[in-house]
Amino acid sequence: MPSSETDRGHARGRLTELVVVFGSLGIIGFGGPAAHIALMRREVVERRRWLTDAQLVDMIGITNLIPGPNSTELAMLVGRLRGGGAGLAVAGLAFILPAAAIVLALAWAYVTFGQTPTGEALLYGIKPVVVAIVGVALIAFARTALTGPLRIAVAAAVALLWVAGVNELVLLAAGAVAVAVTRVGTGHPWTAIGLVLPVAGATATAASVNLLTLAAVFLKAGALLYGSGYVLLAFLRGDLVERLGWLTDAQLLDAVAIGQVAPGPLFTTATFIGYVLAGIPGAVVATIAIFLPAFVFVAIIGPMVERLRDRPLAAALLDGVNAAAIGLMAAVSVQLGASAIRDPLTVALAFGAIAALWWGRVPSVLLVAVGGAVGLAASAAGIGP
Hints:
The chain has 16 helices and no strands. It is mainly alpha-helical. It is globular, with a radius of gyration of 21 Å.
């Protein structure tokens, strides 16, 4: 009995540690997935020595093989290693909930004050900065993902077909299959998997906001979205702007801007959009729907980490999906840029942000703050909205 009680005490202590570590990161984790991973490494490798650099790199590789927010899934994998299934859930929730609460507060402020002159002036300066952030991320991802002619061709074709109106899920699946067939041939039965699931996941149009359809939109995104959180733009624009008509391009950019200002995973954009569309119930439903698949995928894949990394088909499918995701990001970035960059000042803000990100390595949150300040100053001077 004493030994059993001691074991339970140790287990509770480990779960408490996970709450402290990942709850803190959910509050201070500005700057996107790369920054999140760097912060996690500092905590779990350098400070606490829960795992080695080699183990962390393996986990990062695995998060790229499954859909969902990579840094959140990395937190879950570390939690699973430290505290089993309970650790997985605790680490994931600790990382997500503080960020979602902050985004919820910002969504309330947006709904309450966003249409005032002050709110419009802030967003006038912030939106071109957000477009620049997405553009720089796109270039960085392209350097990694588009390493051969086939993947470049897939990305270009996907961008053009998405502009022509082809469903983004079909395009992601087609990209995966194109690379997989080229690399491993048509004999493998799983090369057709991408042609089945995404078509079934298409969302029907709806005349008004309802929680069931809202849940379906974000559940689909969480279950099928590969690449960066920025690819979420293409998913949400296709469903919420074009098919359902619940949001405008400007509102979608506002949501991404809030995601940049807030810490934690960019997927908390779902919390913002859910609140804007349906209040607190919408925020809760959208947040649960977009993050739930990540918990399921990590729970399933965790025990199979070592076996998956070396499978040629898995690597080929991932390469194809990543190339298609880059194409989607490029297409949606152009369309969103057209709505945000519309005069000399917003052009200057966008190019200034690109320069600061590219050469100065300035944190995204600081650039967003500067963009907002410029928007306010421009409004006071009679420029802009």
